Amino acid sequence: MDKEKLFEELLGGKEVNIFTKMSLAKDPSTPAKVLEKLANDEDKWIRVELAKNPNTPPELLVMLADDEKYEVRLSAGRNPNTPENILIKLSQDEPRVRTAVANNPSTPIDILEKLAFYDKDIYVREAAITNSSIPVNVLEKLSQDENINIRGAVARNPKTPSNILEKLANDKDMYVRKCVAENENTPSKILDKLADDIFSGIRAEVGRNKNTSPETLSKLSNDEDWWVKSCVSSNPNTPSEIMDRLLQDKDILIRTKVANESKNSNTSSSKQKKSVNPSM
C-alpha cells in the first residue's frame, strides 16, 4: 500500500493492523502527525517503538515519559533527543528506567555523577560509569571504590585513561583485571602484563583484544589453556605464522577450530573478490 494513503487511513481513524503501526512507529520518515496519532495507541509496544524513534518530536517524548508502562518510559529515557528536564525526572524513576537514563549520552553530567556515586542500584551505577559522557575525574575517584563491580565498570569504559587502567590492571580482584583486558582501548603495554596473569580467563581476553601485540599473541598461542589459544585464533590481528602453528597444535579442538576459521575466511575472501569482479 502507498505510504501516503496509509497515513491518510490512519489519521482518518481507519483500523490499521498492529504490525503496520509498529513499522510506522519505528520509521524515522513517518510524519509527525502520524507519530502523534500513534502516541495514543492502546498497545504499549507501539508506544515503546515510538519512544525509541530518533525523529519523535520532543513534545511527544515528554508525553511518553509519563506513560503508565515502564517499558515506554524506559525507551524515552534511552532516547538521546529526550529533553534534559525529562531525563532529570526519569532519573528518579524505577531502577530499569534509571538504568536507561544512565546509559543515555545526553543525560546531564551532574545527573550522571549523582547516579554513578549515589544510586542504590548497582546496575544503574555501572551504566552511568560506562557512559561515554562521564567525566574523567569521576572515573578516577571511582577507580578506588571498594565495590569490585564499580571498579570493573571504570575498567570497561573506553574513555578511561591509560594511567587508571594501569592501576586497575594490578587490582587484587580478578574480575577487575579481566575488565581491563576486555577494554578495546587498553594499551598493548598493559595487555602484555596481563598476559602473564594466573587466571586463564584474563589471558583469554588478552588473546582476544585487538590491541595485543604480535609478540604477546605468539606467547599466548602456546598457553596451556585451550580457551586462551582459541581466543588467539579468533583475533583478526593474529599473524598468519601463528595461525599456521595452531593448525599443528596437539589439541584436536584447536586444530579443528583454526581449520574451520581458515576455511570460512577463504570463502569470505572469495565472495568479496567475485563481488568486485563479476566476470570471475
Describe this protein's structure.
- This protein is an all-alpha fold and 280 residues long.
- Helices cover 64% and strands 0% of the residues.
- The chain has 20 helices and no strands.
- Helix 9 packs across helix 10.
- It starts with a helix and ends with a helix.
- About 2% of the residues have low confidence.
Compact overview of the structure:
The chain is mainly α and 280 residues long. It is 64% helix and 0% strand. It is built from 20 helices and no strands.
The mean pLDDT is: 91
* Strand segment count: 0
Contiguous runs where pLDDT drops below 50 for at least 5 residues: 268-273
Task: Report the span from N to C terminus.
Answer: 40 Å
- The helix tally amounts to 20
- The helix/strand series, from N terminus to C terminus, equals HHHHHHHHHHHHHHHHHHHH
SS strand fraction: under 5%
**Helical coverage, percent range:** 55-70%
Taken from the alpha-carbon principal axes, the silhouette is flat
* Sheet with most strands: none
Q: Which short descriptors sum up this protein?
A:
280 residues, mainly alpha, 0% strand
Present the secondary structure layout:
Elements (H helix, E strand, L loop, with lengths): L2 H9 L6 H9 L5 H7 L5 H9 L5 H7 L5 H9 L5 H7 L4 H9 L5 H10 L3 H8 L6 H7 L5 H9 L5 H7 L5 H9 L5 H7 L5 H9 L5 H7 L5 H9 L5 H7 L5 H25 L4
Helix pairs in contact: 2-4, 4-6, 6-8, 8-10, 9-10, 10-12, 12-14, 14-16, 16-18, 18-20
